[in-house]
């Protein structure tokens, strides 16, 4: 039987690894989450059919590339074969064919398909940069007290070299491809901030903590894109209760975007001919606070769509670089962190917030893979035609677009409050979030659980 060790800081990959495992040949799969640097994770296999063979633990010892987490698991394993599976890799089908044929007292190495490099690395070479983690399997008895170097690179070579020195006669090379190298693509994200940065000076700390912070903590690379507007006249938005506010044209610089575009709002409004979108009237015209003949909200929605569309054109110039795209607003106060498992490669669903729903969607945030997110961000291209048939209501139009382009979605626990230019928080958002967290807590009590709902402390303090 085989004990598998996975030091994990990329939980979004675990399901793909899981699908490649033949559990009938496994004793235990030890998933050791790297909780150093204040990282946090949710255990995801507690209710799985193979839960009796999956051990999810945490280890907060700081070290190089998960080496302390591997050592943590080694201390728990008593016998059988030990195999290390990186959290950006999967098992090769040939591996499972070989396992039943292996001598329990021998160390085995084999060839590797370096799939991203389009080459084969031959096994049996116990030399630095010529042997990889997935190329060897070792009996626990031969490992003894040997451990991975906690703070040094090339941990796989250092480890197997020590085993080789003390048990050279136990090594056997199988001239077959039985493993991959870095099979799962590394996540790289384009974070697209759209619309006015009217309150960035109030919201920036929450962006840094809850949007950028989780990516940095898990070593996920990202580029920030921003499209916004500059205004020659004071900003007024009757629906939000904002009037005669002079916006800081340079406020966007606080975000330090890698790529940005700043357009003149008045010029864009004229060029887009906003009046042409009013054929079926104002979708917000029936609200109590609506002012007859005032189309500010509809105009802002069109400019919002234009902003996303411009971001798509910017991202397309570097599209091959990214595995995921996020659309988010710079004028909202984020309350809870992005979850790393949302960056899935297997699911074709985009993630949208589970609060502030109208027609079961919230159009202020979305995260997904480029194929879906490009269509999501190019809604402007179809907005005029839609407005000639139906009122251009934001959520209804989003639903129609996703249905047309077959974009599936799932709700995630991610919520935030819109912040006005004067620093006031949107009361509707606050009430919806409080109601959501209240329902979650009541639901947990009814189930008799003590599961902590992330973020409720901060929300209740607003």
Record the SSE blueprint.
Blueprint: E1 2-8, H1 14-19, E2 26-34, E3 54-59, H2 67-74, E4 81-84, H3 93-98, E5 107-114, E6 119-121, E7 136-139, H4 140-143, H5 155-166, E8 171-180, E9 188-194, H6 200-217, E10 221-230, E11 235-237, E12 242-245, E13 259-264, H7 265-272, H8 296-316, E14 324-328, E15 332-334, E16 350-353, E17 365-368, H9 370-377, H10 380-387, H11 394-404, E18 409-412, E19 416-418, H12 427-446, H13 456-460
Parallel strand pairs: 1-2, 1-4, 2-3, 5-8, 9-10, 9-14, 10-13, 16-18
Antiparallel strand pairs: 4-7, 5-6, 5-7, 11-12, 14-17, 15-19
Give an overview in words.
- With 462 residues, this protein is α/β, with parallel strands linked by helices.
- It folds into 2 domains: 2-180, Spore Coat Polysaccharide Biosynthesis Protein SpsA, Chain A (Alpha-Beta Complex), CATH 3.90.550; 188-456, Spore Coat Polysaccharide Biosynthesis Protein SpsA, Chain A, CATH 3.90.550.
- The protein is built from 13 helices and 19 strands.
- Strands 1, 2, 3, 4, 5, 6, 7 and 8 form an 8-stranded mixed beta sheet that branches. The protein has a 5-stranded mixed beta sheet with strand order 13-10-9-14-17.
- A hairpin with a 4-residue loop joins strand 5 and strand 6.
